[in-house]
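INFO  loader      accepted 1 record
INFO  loader      residues=535
INFO  predictor   begin
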Amino acid sequence: MPAVTCRTSLVLPLHVAAGVFSVMRTPLDALPDLSDTQVIIRTSWAGQSPQVVEDQVTYPLATTMLSVPGARTVRAYSFFGDSYVYVLFDDSTDLYWARSRVLEYLSQVRDQLPAGVNPSLGPDATGLGWVYEYALVDRTGKHDLGELRALQDWFLRYQLKTVPDIAEVASLGGMERAWQIVPNPQALAARGITVAQLVDAVRAANGASGGSVIEQGEAELMVRSDGYLHSRADFESVPITTSANGVPVLLREVATVRRGPSFRRGIAELDGQGEVAGGIVVLRSGKNAKAAIVAVKAKLAELKRSLPAGVEIVPTYDRSQLIDAAVSNLWGKLFEEFLVVALVCVLFLGHLRSALVAVVSLPLGVLTAFIALHLQGVTANLMSLGGIAIAIGAMVDAAVVMIENAHKHLERWRDAHAGKEPQGAARWSLIADAAAEVGPALFVSLLSVLAFNLFFLPYFMTAGEPFGRPAGGRIAPAVGLKRVAAITGALHVALTVVLVLLPGPAYVLLPIAVVPLLELALLLARVPEAEEAPA
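INFO  predictor   done
INFO  writer      dumping tokens
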């Protein structure tokens, strides 16, 4: 048994270290991500009705995606000027493998689409990726909605996309500034010019091209033409056609050029105070929501110094608040359960030190559960941490039974030896006999407790909405895995660590008991540390 003590004293710190490492690396979120593995294809065709979009864009894309390897369902929607095709894959499919397969099949269907229509993939995110939202507000009135939207599109959006684990920063609200060309029907008819000719002339005039190089004096001179339209005067000077006597007809003669917003399909409004511009930060699939939000807040705090005077960034949605509240509340409840278990053990065992030995199995079981979660890539959320909460009672059972049986054996030895305390090898022998007596029964009882998880089976097999797929396959890792790992870890501690702590002196128990308690304090302090980031 002393050799077992030595081995346990070496393995236990490694176990605790692996558990703390897993705790610090496990992603934090408020809820488990139950989304399907899906790839979204968005195709814009400006100005076209939903039926035309359906016939010429959506239908070819959807029928081609049906043959993508691993695709389970293809769902398509047609709107005014836009087409959306959702390709859903089996849950075991890697997201980036699915995206590469969809890209391969997109190359086959491009020739069937109208000219100028280019489909694109949506961000590598899920429906739970919406983690942060903000609004740009100018309370001084010096900047209009077009200027606020320009700040979002050309400054904030690109800067925030550099934050690690951010898949997309979507802009909303405000007005996209554009050049508006308003044709004069009478002037066009008088000169025999169609709207299509006007559009083609403006498109041809706005661009740049290269003309190769000219060798001159042992040097190469690059030839290029720069025809970008930058101002109203540039637009008004665009030639549309020539008259019968060879005089060019300019754009200003047949249309009015003005600055204004592009066509809008919606608005963003804040607290009834008027329209604003803003952005939605979307998290990359499978990443740490809490860490990403902290990084986004820090980046926004840095970018505030570069905004024009009077422009403010107002957070409108911050999931980190929900994450903090959910996780800290659940950890608080777990800590309360630890205290209740300790008091019950003291009450029924009548021995403070033995009760402390039993409680030690709880934090170590929690560490084991986090190691399993880290290896499986499951986030720490309400569901997964709830698996620990419902396993607390079963986790301490093995340690309590082991300690109680050891006390019975020690009591019988004292009765047989006139109240003397067993020492040295005699005490180790008694503890070993007590463990051998109840060890097999404890193992079988653990199997029965784990088999009790079958009551989750009907819930796991319930068809999930909206796709009619079993939702339990996504919830099971969050609840069942955490519960099973916690109970298994507690049994392992009961059959190993408890045996070493019972016969040892008091000074051996103190450091071993303090380490898990310090680990629990680290868990409780992890959320407040993140709140110190700039908001």
